Every structure is written in C-alpha cells, then in structure tokens.
Amino acid sequence: MDDPTTPTLLEPGATNAVGRMLGLLGDEWTLLVLQRALTGVTRYAQFRADLPISNSVLTARLQLLTDELLLERNVYQTNPLRAEYLVTARGRALWPVMLSIWEWERHWVAERADDLPVMHHDLCGHDFAPVLSCRACGKPASVREVGAEWGPSGSWKRSVPEGARRRRSESDSGRTQAGLFPETMTIFGNRWASALMGAAFRGVTRFSDFESALGAPPTLVADRLKAFCALGVLEATQNAKRPDWAEYHLTEKGRAFFPVVAASLQWADHWFKAPEGPALVLSHVPCGAEFVATFTCDQCQAPLTGHEISIIPAP
C-alpha cells in the first residue's frame, strides 16, 4: 500500500513534479474539496452541503484525492456503510497554498473579503497575513527576486499535466458560478490556465511563445490570455520594435499571485521525486542561495507552521 507520508517516485522521462501538481491542483473542484477538508470537513454529506457540486463530481474528486494520497478513506460504520475522508500528511502540507489563496483573494477580490476565513497565529495571538520569505536569509521575497531555471527533469513538455479532467456539464458549470473563489479558479482552476500563468512567471510574453511552450491549441491560448487580461493579472502591450506584436506582461495583481505559485511548487518538489532530479531550480537573487519558500507571520515575523495556525470561518 502506498504511504501518504513519503514522496511519490516518478517514472524516468514521465510528467514531472510540476505537471503532477498542476494535474491535481489545476482543477477547481479538487481545490474546493481540499479547502473544505483542511478546515475540518470529513463526511460526504458535509462536502455536499458546503459545496455547489453534484454527487458524481464529488464522488470522482474524493476518489482522486484518495488515490493520490491526499485524503484517506476511513470506514467508521459498516451497516449501513459510512466512511469519512481524513486529510493525510500529504494533504495537510498544502496549508501554505490555501493560506496564500485566501490572502490573495482578500487583497485583490474586494467582493470576497468578508467571506474569507480569519487566519489566527496561535504563537503570537494575532490575526495575521502570511509573508513569502526565503528560508536561507529570512527576508521577504517577491517574484522579481526569485530566479527560476529548468532542473534535470524540467521542460515545458514534461510540466504540462497528462490528460484533462472530465468537462463539467452545463448544470455543474452553472452551479459553481454561485461563486467560491472565482478569480483564483480562473487562474489556477484549469490545467492550461495554471500552466500559462506559470509560463508568464518564467518570462514568456508573446502569443507564439505561449503556444509553442505549452503545446496548446491557439484558440485555447487566446481564450486564456483574454481571460487573464480581463481579470487584470496580465496586460497586453505593443512590442517596442514590432508594433504589430502584442506582448502580455504580469500586472501588480498578477505578480501578487506568486506566493500561491511558490507554495504549490514547493509542495510538488517535496512530494513528487523524478529520478533525474527536480523540475525547477529556484534561487533568491538578493542572497544568492537556493530559494526555499517559507511563510512568516506579518505580526511577529516568526516562521509559520501548520499546527500553530487557527482558521476561523467567516461569520
């Protein structure tokens, strides 16, 4: 039986850690189920009551998360059969990703601010905001200060997840528009959207480069770029030397999403090991060390740990 406390060893030449992460987290329902699980929801009926999700989609996502060792199915009653879904060590390790999503939505999606949970740091006794920092020097780190190069298992081809999830039916699509983290889902809740955002963070700016790097159909790239510009995370500009060429650059809002990306990459690097080595090698330019993402409390500056954080649901 697979052990949820140890990393998954990937096959040589297969989809790398980035692609595996995007295949899991680049799905809106998976993220929403995980968010609920990390705040204490364990039973099917609770997930169903909390989320605008159909029975078939919820069943599929719970099975996926169980197969991928983020949740563990525990039968607590046999007649009739009843089971609960408990977060494993691998699932709990996603708390920095969820905190980063909540913090980004709080600052950049005004209509969502009152609906987000309060993050309380038990160590210092204050409500807090997580600050992305470099483990080596302890300083806060912005996207402009983090360099990224492909590692031994890294390439665009190997970083795009295998296969697409089942397309949601019109009824499912309509129900989710009631709106749980809609802007985050636009960026991160689709495998191609999250891959394109990753390319933007690595410096890709031209349409043809997005298309060739991701191996995605032109219509899909155009649709995602249009959606990102409408959301305000990218802006289209003219190339200084070729006015007929459009370039797509990250805005301040787009750059502010970097902690979500950094936390996700960190999680992927730990839990999915390719025999060739890591997919990405990150460096913190100011101190010159390898960049290992940590999160600190903006109130006391102490490093955050999952067992010292309380999540208080919005009233």
Automatic annotation (TrEMBL):
<dbReference type="InterPro" id="IPR002577">
    <property type="entry name" value="HTH_HxlR"/>
</dbReference>
<feature type="region of interest" description="Disordered">
    <location>
        <begin position="149"/>
        <end position="177"/>
    </location>
</feature>
<dbReference type="InterPro" id="IPR036388">
    <property type="entry name" value="WH-like_DNA-bd_sf"/>
</dbReference>
<keyword id="KW-0804">Transcription</keyword>
<feature type="compositionally biased region" description="Basic and acidic residues">
    <location>
        <begin position="159"/>
        <end position="173"/>
    </location>
</feature>
<keyword id="KW-0805">Transcription regulation</keyword>
<feature type="domain" description="HTH hxlR-type">
    <location>
        <begin position="178"/>
        <end position="276"/>
    </location>
</feature>
<dbReference type="InterPro" id="IPR036390">
    <property type="entry name" value="WH_DNA-bd_sf"/>
</dbReference>
<keyword id="KW-0238">DNA-binding</keyword>
<feature type="domain" description="HTH hxlR-type">
    <location>
        <begin position="11"/>
        <end position="113"/>
    </location>
</feature>
<dbReference type="GO" id="GO:0003677">
    <property type="term" value="F:DNA binding"/>
</dbReference>
<protein>
    <submittedName>
        <fullName>Helix-turn-helix transcriptional regulator</fullName>
    </submittedName>
</protein>
<dbReference type="Pfam" id="PF01638">
    <property type="entry name" value="HxlR"/>
</dbReference>
